[in-house]
Amino acid sequence: MKPLYSQSMEMLRDTANLFASKELEPRAAAVDMSAAFPQEGFNGLATLGFTGMTINEDFGGSGGGYKELAVVIEELAAACGSTSTVFLTHVSLGMRPIYRFGTDIQKKRWLPRMTAGKAVGAFALTETSTGSDALGLETIAVSDGNNYVLNGAKCFITNGTVADIFVVFVTHNRALGYSGISALIIERNTPGFTIDPQTGSMGMRGSSTAELSFNDCRVPKSNRLGDEGLGYTVALATLDSSRISLAAQCVGLARGSYESALSYASHRQTFGTHINSHQAIQFMIADMATEIDAARLMTYRAASLCDANPPHTKEAAMAKLFASEAAGRSVTNAVQIHGGAGYFKPSKVERMYRDQRVTQIYEGTSEIQRLVIARSEITNPNHGMQTA
Asked: Tens digits of per-residue pLDDT, 298-324?
């Protein structure tokens, strides 16, 4: 059996683990309490070259694939969920569509600032009226010479209050359905573009979220990614790869809560003995360890497929579904093992319990992942399981 990590991946993991434990974890509770964007953490990720991951050196990136990215995200999420969300959104949602679908001119214009961490990226798809039908868009772009004129709004946009560069999905004609959708690159200071913070989230409180409004906002057609009407393809391809990043985040959240529970159970005593000697606790620990391992393997399989470039929609959806729900069970067990101590702030597992919940909602709810998987199985019942 091939080892899970290559030597270079082990070095990458160690670097990310050291940074996360020294720089992120000590600040995680304060980031959560203040709901402040983790700027110091993001700057540190840029210094390490992590903000340029998966992007070719020709555009200022540090290279690597989604397996390497998954290694880093797991370590970050085990320490600070908010920072991991900021990071994966920047890399997987902000830069990825530009890198994959942009022209060389577009890549050279926007990616170097993003890879260096000097510009934060965001992905604007969701609207208030669309829900899980995220591509039933109402934000409309009307052609006017060399420009589009945009009117509409987006909501729940991660990194929205701090982002400099947005990939925004619009429709030219709702009657055309998905074939009428395009993806546009829009910079923060574009006239007619307004950003309003959305506050009060249950978890991931350091991950800034915003509502975006477009009021006769003029965007050059040269900012369009690919041909007009290619936006549906851009969105689905981006979500396929980003769900792998989210699965890695879930593995990190599950592992962080597991490690906290394991440590607590080793010194907490009841009835004259450490609670890790009680069978009920041991069974929870066994279930957590097993599901974390399985989630990691599913994530790496999907990442390997993404890097090798065959279709990986089903495998990414499976990884995201299983890892997010496994993380939910892990954080629940971790709070249970801690008992009352895990229910109150500043308990790490209390924070992780809240942080984890959104992973079963964003970038496709668990129900949407099940639809994606089922449709793949029904359409291709005999294709078997892909391996990279």
From this structure: 999 999 999 998 899 999 999 999 999
Q: What is the DSSP string of 317-373?
A: HHHHHHHHHHHHHHHHHHHHHHGGGGTSTT-HHHHHHHHHHGGGTTTS-HHHHHHHH
Reported as a single tens digit per residue, the pLDDT across 128-182 is 987 667 668 999 999 999 999 999 999 999 999 999 999 999 999 988 988 999 9
Question: Can you give the C-alpha Rg of the chain in angstroms?
Answer: 21
Q: List Cα–Cα distances, 295 to 80, 252, 324, in angstroms.
A: 19, 10, 9
Judge contact between 92 and 69, C-beta under 8 A.
yes
- Active-site hit among 23, 211, 350, 363: 363
CA–CA separation, 306 vs 65, rounded Å?
8
Size of the chain, expressed as the number of residues it contains: 388
The encoded tokens of residue 193 equal 């573009």
363 tagged catalytic: yes
Residue 236, both tokens: 């689905």
